[in-house]
Amino acid sequence: MKVDKISFNGNFNIGLFAYANDSFCLVGSDVPERIVEIMKKVLDVPVHQISIAGTSLIGVFVAGNSNSILVPQIIYPDEIALLKKLKIKHTIVNTTLSALGNNILCNDNGAIINPEFEDEAVAEISKALKVDVKKGTIEELNTVGSLGFTNNRGAVVSKDITTDELDFVSNQLKVNTIRGTVNLGNNYISSGVIANNKGLLIGSATGGVEITDIDNTLIRD
Predict the structure, then answer these.
(1) DSSP tag of 47
(2) Domain layout of the chain by residue ranges
(3) Which CATH superfamily is domain 3-218 in?
(4) Could you report the per-residue pLDDT of 25-61, keeping only the tens digit for each?
(5) Would you tell me which of 68, 109, 164, 170 could form a disulfide with 177, CB atoms 3.0–4.6 Å apart?
(6) CB neighbours of 188 closer than 8 A, spacing ≥ 6?
């Protein structure tokens, strides 16, 4: 199974609580084991339950690609120790924009980041991800990571993105990019999606047309 609808303890904003790539998935420590098993099957990777900054909001605080994950400087020492134990390559980004997942939209081809990132942070992000990094907006808003989701197959962004922004996202990430929503009309795409290049998990309130559009863009060849 490559696509499934899930919720975490009745919460369909599943993307807030997880980060996934083709090697592993990180998910909040309070996610039920039954759901963890579904995630393993759909994403076809090991799933590790962790916390970041003492919370289960992994998707809010973590961004990354196959080269490294990015974690905020507010991460706790024991959380860093666990990442090291799991042999997960990570980079601590020194920035006031701690919600990295909300502020970075990236894949293995490129990255788009909140225009408010400090120059030092931009350099850290580019070095860790090993991609070209550019500042940009979606819907003329800075929180690009929350308003879109991408893997190496495609990108789905808020239905209210401007045409110029849509072209910019597509060119920078080097993937087909479409407008869409999740969970029956929510423009904050990443809040309802957990995916890698192998499988797609989507918030349980997401409608059929929304699922088809996202599936066709992120998963289907």
Answers:
(1) E
(2) 3-218
(3) L-arginine/glycine Amidinotransferase; Chain A (3.75.10.10)
(4) 999 999 999 999 999 999 999 999 999 999 999 999 9
(5) 170
(6) 146, 147, 158, 182
Q: Residue 139: is it exposed, middle or buried by C-beta count within 10 angstroms (0-12/13-18/19+)?
A: middle
Q: Which amino acid is at 208?
A: G
Query: Which band of pLDDT confidence, cut at 50, 70 and 90, is reported for residue 220?
Result: confident
* Structure tokens given for 65: 């690609």
Which two tokens mark 95?
A: 């920035």
Long-range CB contact pairs, 119-128, < 8 A, 24+: 120/94, 120/95, 121/93, 121/94, 121/95, 121/97, 124/91, 124/93, 124/94, 125/70, 125/91, 125/93, 127/91, 128/64, 128/67, 128/68, 128/70, 128/91, 128/93
Q: Give the residue from 106, 112, 154, 156 showing the smallest Cα distance to 135.
A: 112
Grouping H, G, I as helix, E, B as strand and the rest as coil, residue 7 is coil
Beta bridge mates, 122: none
State how far the Cα of 187 lies from the Cα of 195, in Å rounded to an integer.
17
